[in-house]
Amino acid sequence: MDDVKIGEILLPGDPDTQKEREETVRSKFWPKMKRVVSKVPFARDAAAAYYCAVDPSTPLRAKGILLAALGYFIMPIDVVPDVLAVIGFTDDIAVLTAALAMIRAHIKMEHYDAADLALEKMREE
Predict the structure, then answer these.
(1) Listed residue (68, 33, 67) closest to 47, CA to CA
(2) What angle separates helix 43-54 from helix 109-124, to the nearest 10 degrees?
(3) Which positions fall inside the DUF1232 domain (predicted)?
(4) What is the pLDDT of residues 64-92, one digit of tens each?
(5) Quick check: pTM over 0.90?
(6) 85-62-77 Cα angle (round to 5)
(7) Residue 121: CB atoms within 10 Å
């Protein structure tokens, strides 16, 4: 199967590529989220997508889709710059919404529960 490049993330790829994507998202997702949590109306969905993507029980294809969407969110260069307040995140929400629609059967309430807890702690800091 051929890889499709979305930003710096390849989709769907082999397990080694998948592992690299996951490491990139793991290292950059939370620092980005901490910077923008008060500005993004989709923080809960993004955090739940993160937890679903790193969940060992999530199928490889669903992980690949989520990691590509989260990779787009954490990319420093964006189609619509994130510095433009809420409007800057419209492309990010579109990509994330499309990804969540494709993997809907794999995102669980426990992913949202973990997201809620993480975001609550982040907002308290």
Answers:
(1) 33
(2) 120
(3) 62-97
(4) 999 999 998 888 665 555 555 556 678 88
(5) no
(6) 30
(7) 9
